[in-house]
Every structure is written in C-alpha cells, then in structure tokens.
User: Which sequence fits this backbone?
C-alpha cells in the first residue's frame, strides 16, 4: 500500500504525512525524556547528597568532546538535506557518511566512559546519581544507535530511491534529520545536567 | 527542486554560523560551571544556556523558524505538558511552591540498596 501525501501536501494540514508524523513522534519523545528529567529533579532535590563518587567523577572533557561531536553531526545531517535540495547527490553521500562516522565516534567515547566506570566497580546500582546517569545517557545512546541504523540504510539500499523519486527521498532525509536533531537536543540538556551541575 | 537551490545555498551559511554559535556556547557552559556561585544559580545559568542552544538547533536545523501552524500548535501542547511533568511532582511533594525547605523531609534513597 502506497502511503499518500509523502511529497504532496495534505489539503487539511498543509503538511506531508511523514513530517506531521515525525513531529508527533518527537512530541512523545519529549514526554519520555521529560519524565526522566522530572525524575532526576525529584530525586536530586530530595537528596542532600548528590553527585558522582569522588574517585569516579564524570569526565567533563569527554562529555564536552561528545557534545561537539553531536553538534557537528547535526550540521552534517542538515547538510545532507541541503545538498539533496541543491541536486548534489555525491555531496549528500559524503555528508551522510560524516554523520554516521560522528555518531559512531560518540558511541565509542560513551563506551570508554561506561567502561571506565565499570572497571572502578561503578554500576547503576552504586547510587541514585549513577542509576539516573546510566539510565538517561543509556536511553539516549540507544536512540543514537537507532538513528545510525536508519542512516546506514540510507547510505546503502535506501539511497536507490533518489534515482526514481528524488523529492520523496529528500523528504525522507529531512524527516530523519528531524529525529537526529532531537537526539542532539536531548544531549545538549543531558551534558550540563550530569557533567557540570552535579 | 532546483528552484529552491538558491534559498538553500543561503541557508548553508546560516548552518555554519549556528554551528559556531553552538560550539562557543558549549565552551561557555563549561566555563560557567566553574564559577563560584550557589547551586540554584549555577543550575539556572547552565539550563538557560542549554535552552539557547536547543532553540538554535530547533529553529535553524529543524526549520522551526518557518513551519506550519499545526506543528507550532503541537509543540505548544507538548511544552505545556512537559512543564506539567516537571512541576507537578514537586508541587505534589511539597504541597506548594513556597516551601522548598520541606523538600528535604522526603528521604529518597541515595543508593538502590537503601530502604
């Protein structure tokens, strides 16, 4: 079954179906992460003691590098859409590859951080702070992995659609970009919350 | 599609500018965290900077600066319920917004093993 209004705008909403769909999905994601931020606030204000173990503090430099990495990936992601709009398919593929590489770099740095914690016997069960830290950054990491799966699909078999339906393909990339920017946005709030304000 | 190419080409310069602004604000966030201020003030400044950064991502990368009203309406509702999610639990805990000292009456476990 062909999904309607993937290129043409719906007469009632003046939007394509995928665009409205992704924004509704992102609204639900705001509530998901919002619930966790609310939990964080709730637990933090109720705890006189809060923060990482003095011997296993969160590495601010690694967190900052990861912030730069995700911001850069957001730029390359929006450039994917921009290069398609300018009919520059080779540049699109290059920008998409950069986005995937940056996303994987983020996950590698994250795995070094997690590994460092585990090697010092720091686990989610260690304290409420670490339970919250691992839960929220872990859920964010899962979202990054999910995004990478989609991006790799568009680097691989997914890009064939450009040859037959270029406008529909461009809209798909735009919608994927919206999800990716949201993932970046969540990290923009996670980084100061855990690395700087604890 | 090519009729939009010139507009998109101008947007590319904006994207680079936003990237630079986000990078600078990230450094500012880290520097501000080192300031000798109280926790609530530090929290406020840090989250305000995060809000500015998030707004730049939303307005320019997510093209919210020129979106349709239905999307804005969806987001207004989302923000409203997000604020409910943030403030109602604290309100329920304290009974009001004006007695923050009672927050510490609630004994939350500092470790999963505590009861």
Assistant:
């Amino acid at each position: 079954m062909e999904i309607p209004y993937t290129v043409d705008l719906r007469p009632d909403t003046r939007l394509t179906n995928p665009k409205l769909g992704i924004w509704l999905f992102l609204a639900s994601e705001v509530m998901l992460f919002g619930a966790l931020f609310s939990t964080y606030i709730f637990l933090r204000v109720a705890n006189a003691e809060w923060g990482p173990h003095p011997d296993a503090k969160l590495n601010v430099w690694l967190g900052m590098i990861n912030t730069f990495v995700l911001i850069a990936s957001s730029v390359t992601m929006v450039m994917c859409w921009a290069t398609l709009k300018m009919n520059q398919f080779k540049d699109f593929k290059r920008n998409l590859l950069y986005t995937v590489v940056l996303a994987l770099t983020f996950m590698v740095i994250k795995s070094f951080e997690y590994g460092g914690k585990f090697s010092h016997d720091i686990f989610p069960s260690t304290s409420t702070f670490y339970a919250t830290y691992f839960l929220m950054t872990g859920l964010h990491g899962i979202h990054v992995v999910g995004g990478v799966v989609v991006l790799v699909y568009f680097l691989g078999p997914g890009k064939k659609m450009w040859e037959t339906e270029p406008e529909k393909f461009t809209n798909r990339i735009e919608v994927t970009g919206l999800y990716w920017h949201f993932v970046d946005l969540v990290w923009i709030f996670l980084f100061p919350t855990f690395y700087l304000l604890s | 599609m090519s009729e939009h190419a010139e507009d998109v080409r101008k947007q590319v310069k904006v994207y680079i500018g936003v990237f630079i602004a986000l990078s600078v604000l990230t450094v500012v966030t880290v520097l501000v965290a080192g300031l000798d201020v109280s926790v609530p003030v530090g929290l406020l400044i840090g989250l305000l900077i995060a809000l500015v950064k998030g707004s730049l991502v939303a307005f320019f990368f997510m093209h919210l600066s020129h979106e349709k009203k239905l999307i804005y309406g969806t987001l207004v509702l989302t923000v409203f319920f997000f604020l409910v999610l943030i403030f109602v639990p604290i309100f329920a805990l304290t009974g009001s917004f004006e007695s923050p000292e009672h927050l510490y009456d609630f004994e939350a476990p500092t470790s999963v093993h505590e009861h």
